[in-house]
Amino acid sequence: MAKADIEDINRNIYDFKNADNYDFKIEKGLNREIVEEISKMKNDPDWMREIRLKALEMYNKLELPTWGPDLSELNMEEIATYVKPKSKLNSSWDEVPEDIKDTFDKLGIPEAEKKSLAGVGAQYDSEVVYHSIKEDLLKQGVIYTDMETAVREYPEIVKEHFMKCVPISDHKFVALHAAVWSGGSFVYVPKGVKLDIPLQSYFRLNSPESGQFEHTLIIVDEGASLHFIEGCSAPKYNKVNLHAGCVELYVKDNAYLRYSTIENWSKNMMNLNTKKAIVGKNAQVDWVTGSFGSKVSMLYPMSFLNGEGAKTEYTGITFAGGGQNLDTGFKVVHNAKNTSSIVNSKSISKNGGSCTYRALVRINENAKNSKCSVSCESLMLDDKSRSDTIPVNDIRTDDVIFSHEAKIGKISDKEIFYLMSRGLSEEDAKAMIVRGFAYPISKELPVEYAVEMNNLINLELEGSIG
Asked: Which of 213, 250, 331, 449 gives 445 a disulfide partner, CB atoms 3.0 to 4.6 angstroms apart?
């Protein structure tokens, strides 16, 4: 039986690009003068400038990770770490420059804001160009703004939490991020306030040979709840771009946070992002992640279950095509009794793409009566692709319930034959199986974003029978 030749993704909807028309682009490379110039342009207070310089020192001391994908193509001497677009921060889409507004129109962000979001932040290269929040949330004390504004207007809150969940010594690219960070979002949800509609930040990198280093800091106070959505994309260039953002989440006692991400970087992007959450007593953080783009990804969201009864759930899908090495997974540390975690990871690889599920589960001695369930499934669409599972399970007490299940396989010829016998083409049969495989992930997203994820899968599967 002839096999469907699944072609590479048609990325026209994401690969459109504007002229590299910036207000300012810092010289390429990384040194003290560059970090100080970024700090000066940001009007940083002294304490933030000191963090940046300390992080630069740490960056110069730390080695590149050697246990994951090959990062030898990344040369920081060829990366501009700060690009200021020709736009100020606006609260109305009408005030955003036409070329930048057109970008977000094509990505559907203004339309999504009207239909299904309580607030939106939009970043273009290194700066947030648009931010909004519904008036009724302001009246309840919800803060949703860009990080620069937060540093100026809420310095004590930021100082207490910034680079504390993710310390600058964590790894080389966290140190890089802390030295040159720009843009990002700050959210504070007061005690007992429950948001029924999500907030969303969207990060668009347009400038070639540059990096994006947004910082997201979210604090969900006691008894509050929030769904936050993060979207990312970039057009394809012939040279490497870099994304090294950082996400710090603080979920206080009895609070709830769902953090959903659709990452669709271009295939010249090195995506070296870091995301961590600290979870309080009887609180819960849920991660929903779709990773579709980038040449290389190293991304492992992490939850620290510090309060008794804390919970976390990770639901993620990774799709790697030719030339992609996507190394993703999840980490959880149980630091209190009666905590629980559920991990449900899926990956799809095709045309020689490589997916790796890399994970850590640590249940410490004092985390008695805790539960953890891990399920990892991988689907390979051809004989050229690769899928690996590298779990680390560190269980330090006997008083736990723990299970780990992993499955790697290919699309069954019998399944394809059965569907073709019911009138489907071979290509449609394959696509139906893949969409069914991905369904547990897409059903966890709001409707608009599930549609986007399914569209991405359809684009990845476009092709004809050879």
From this structure: 449
